[in-house]
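Design review, sub-item: ligand-bound model
Attendees: FS, YL, KQ
YL presented the inputs for the flavin-adenine dinucleotide complex:
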Amino acid sequence: FFSGTGKKVLIVYAHQEPKSFNGSLKNLADEVLSKQGCSVTISDLYAMDFKPAATRSDIIGELYNPDHFNYRVECFEAYKKGRLAKDVLEEQKKVLDANLVIFQFPVYWFSMPAIMKGWIDRVFIQGFSYGIPGFYDEGFLKDKKALLSLTTGGDEGMYLPTGANGDIKYLLWSMQHGMMHFCGFQVLAPNVCYGMDNVTEEKRKEMLDAWAHRLQKIWEEKPINCQPSGYF
Ligand SMILES: Cc1cc2nc3c(=O)[nH]c(=O)nc-3n(C[C@H](O)[C@H](O)[C@H](O)COP(=O)(O)OP(=O)(O)OC[C@H]3O[C@@H](n4cnc5c(N)ncnc54)[C@H](O)[C@@H]3O)c2cc1C
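KQ shared the predicted structure:
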């Protein structure tokens, strides 16, 4: 029984080291989902040397308003005319093709690494992933699912409501609601691997097993409540 037959998954992956734990989580997802019959595409951002900065060079040809550069407006206009940079168009095509997008990354400063944030800045532009109106539940990617799979240096206790870092929900909120849900994505529960900098080998194996186990039934999962009222 191939539960993922016909499903397409994009893994947006940000780690420099293939032997890292993030690399292992990414490889495992690729393996488990492929075995289910899914077709898996990976955007390995560091290997691609993905350009994270939102700059004028993202617009090909004449600017809409050369006197006052506004990145949001310029991208919106360029998108409508098919004049966005090739690397952005390629990533947008991968997103459009996908039923599920998994973001695999180590937490950097309570957020995602800059290269992944840059991917969001440049790929999820107005007209493509959202409109005004056309965001949150009406976001243009509302038929798709998104899942954040992240590792932390801090251990689980530090991310409890009473811990030094505060509830992990706060760290996740800007990404799950402000980025994913804003674009319409149905947000699946995150996969959080805590305390990577000092966890035992045995515990690491358990985390990998749990991830593999979860992915077996990923297509049965219901999205989390990502409304401000329901989330907190
Ligand atoms: C700029 C920056 C900012 C940061 N900010 C934060 C922050 O705000 N909050 C926070 O909590 N942390 C923060 N950190 C820490 C960071 O999140 C962790 O270092 C990171 O999550 C560790 O993940 P990794 O994949 O790099 O681990 P790795 O060091 O690559 O892996 C951990 C261990 O797992 C082993 N491993 C790999 N694959 C397997 C496998 N298949 N089976 C068993 N073992 C395996 C590796 O060999 C290694 O021993 C920050 C780090 C940086 C660089």
